[in-house]
Amino acid sequence: MGSVVTGEAVVLELRPASFGARMLGAAIDVAVQVLLLVLLLALMSPLLDRLDPAAAQAALMLTVVGVFLLVPVAVETLTRGRSLGRLALGLRIVRDDGGAVRFRHAFIRALVGILEIYLTLGSVAFLAAVFNERSKRVGDMLAGTYSLRDRVAAQRPAPLHTPVELQPWAALADLGRLPDGLARRIHRFLMQAPRMAPASRAALGTALATEAAAYTAPPPPPQTHPEAFLLALLSERRNRDLHRLAGRRQRSEVLAQRLHRLPFE
């Protein structure tokens, strides 16, 4: 599994496509391109018969280049690394840093692909992908790209729970309203903390805990871990908000019953 470190020191785990998925996706794309070429040649056949041999050969060459080079480059650039075969298998071509591919990457891949896929019947691409941990072919190595599993089952984040040692403090603490931006940053940090570098995780957790402490009274017990404090803070705020909303809904239902009651009742 590949990993990319973002600017916030968050390590993103990216799943490269398997060798079998890449080969199947490439086979679909090659079949589509060959079918497109055959269809174009069939439509151009009457026109080629009327041209002189040099012009017919030039038109034929332009058609082949367009199908095997220009079309893949245009499709991959406009769809940000997808194609018909990759779309069918849930794959996508991305840069080595996880970003979307651009025209330069698509052009290099398609140009090298003519040699390693079509002129060598796929043998060069096959051998290169077999011995590469990300199943890269030569075009990917030169372009700095690889195939990524784009459709991965979404994992639901783990629910937030107040740590046991902080439950007595959380039940009595006066929690002020956190600014929306700070609350979002704390929640994002707690969700991404397990994937962060230890030093960055500790520094960011301490900074967020210091900023959030200004909205709580009394402060958490001494020696409380910053992440435990943030976890208790968000969990208790959520529980109190749910309790308040449940009480408001109950009062609304009672009022609605009174309003809809007949006068003589």
Description:
This protein has 265 residues and is mainly alpha-helical. It has 2 domains: 2-149, no CATH class; 164-259, no CATH class. Helices cover 62% and strands 8% of the residues. The chain contains 10 helices and 6 strands. It has helices spanning 19-50, 53-78, 84-89, 103-119, 123-130, 138-143, 167-172, 180-192, 198-212, 226-259, and strands spanning 2-5, 11-14, 91-95, 145-149, 174-175, 216-217. The strands form 3 sheets. A two-stranded antiparallel ribbon has the order 1-2. Helix 8 packs antiparallel against helix 9 (198-212), helix 8 crosses helix 10 (226-259) and helix 9 crosses helix 10 (226-259). It holds the Pfam family RDD. The chain crosses the membrane at residues 20-43, 55-75, 106-131.
Offer a few descriptive terms:
single chain; 265 residues; mainly alpha; 2 domains; two-stranded antiparallel ribbon; 10 helices; 6 strands; 62% helix; 8% strand; elongated
Secondary structure layout:
Layout: E1 2-5, E2 11-14, H1 19-50, H2 53-78, H3 84-89, E3 91-95, H4 103-119, H5 123-130, H6 138-143, E4 145-149, H7 167-172, E5 174-175, H8 180-192, H9 198-212, E6 216-217, H10 226-259
Antiparallel strand pairs: 1-2, 3-4, 5-6
Low-confidence stretches: 4-11
Number of helical segments with 4 or more residues: 10
Taking the sheet with the most strands, its summary is:
2 strands, antiparallel
CA-based shape: elongated
Percentage beta strand: 5-15%
Structural class: mainly alpha
The helix/strand series, from N terminus to C terminus, equals EEHHHEHHHEHEHHEH
Tell me roughly what share of residues is in helical segments: 55-70%
Please compute the radius of gyration using only Cα atoms: 30 Å
Count of β-strands: 6
Strand order of the largest sheet: 1-2
Number of domains: 2
Q: Could you tell me the mean pLDDT?
A: 84
